[in-house]
Amino acid sequence: MHPSSDAMIVIDVQNDFCPGGALAVAEGDAILPGINALMAEFSAVVLTQDWHPQDHSSFAANHPGADPFSQIQMGYGPQVLWPTHCVQGSTGAAFHPDLQVDRADLILRKGYRRAIDSYSAFFENDRKTQTGLHGYLRDRGVSRLVLAGLATDFCVAYSALDAVRLGYAVTVRLDLCRAIDLDGSLTAMLARLAVEGIGLEG
Ligand code: VGL
Ligand code: ZN
């Protein structure tokens, strides 16, 4: 059992990121047994849930003429346009049925504002608007984080980068993550994580 100052953060293990989903990550469902087993070793477990309105600005469908996986410039910086995914209340937004959701202390939803995406569990994509997770973890006396989930090179990576910036000791369990890998994004992100002193395990 990990000490109470350690938390496990499970990122976006939702149907749309698993095989058959709208933004499927290859082998996204392969990490479920390992995640379920690891959650049992932590006294603090947080699940995040990507949770977009239908008219969300990160969806290519809401930008006439734009292709999914193309990039646009938003007020807060570059933004990839995704296939419509994780629409609030949809089956795609639900957690994978094999995820032991009952184990979670907190379910944190993100990406619910139309005009701004949120890859990270801590900050929206302007890197300024907080989700509230930092306050929650601080109030519980958490200082070390272990991250797993989907996708390695987007929501897991941005969460890890923000977490070190906030002062947490961070480990990413790469064996319990799977990547989208858009134009080399996985290799680029792993290098960034290593430079920031994030532990890469598995
Ligand atoms: C994610 C792209 C769009 C993720 C979420 O969970 O990594 N990626 N929304
Ligand atoms: Zn999303």
Q: Could you give the distance between the termini?
A: 19 Å
Helices and strands, in order, run as: EHEEEEHEHEHE
Which range best describes the helical content: under 10%, 10-25%, 25-40%, 40-55%, 55-70% or over 70%? 10-25%
For the residues shown, what is the average pLDDT?
A: 97
Strand content: 15-25%
Radius of gyration from the alpha-carbon trace, in angstroms: 16 Å
**Low-confidence spans: pLDDT under 50, at least 5 residues?**
none
Please give the largest β-sheet: 6 strands, parallel
Shape: globular
Q: Order of strands across the biggest sheet?
A: 5-2-1-6-7-8
Number of helices: 4
Cofactors, ions and other ligands in the entry: pyrazine-2-carboxylic acid, zinc ion
Strand element count: 8
| Strand-pairing-aware structural class | alpha/beta
Explain this structure.
A 6-stranded parallel β-sheet has the order 5-2-1-6-7-8, sandwiched between helices. A two-stranded antiparallel sheet has the order 3-4. It has 4 helices and 8 strands, in the order βαββββαβαβαβ. The longest helix is centred in the C-terminal third of the chain and has 14 residues, at about 150-165. The mean pLDDT is about 95. Helix 3 links the parallel strand 6 (about 145-150) and strand 7 (about 170-180). It is α/β, with parallel strands linked by helices and about 200 residues long. Zinc ion binds near residues 82, 86 and 111.
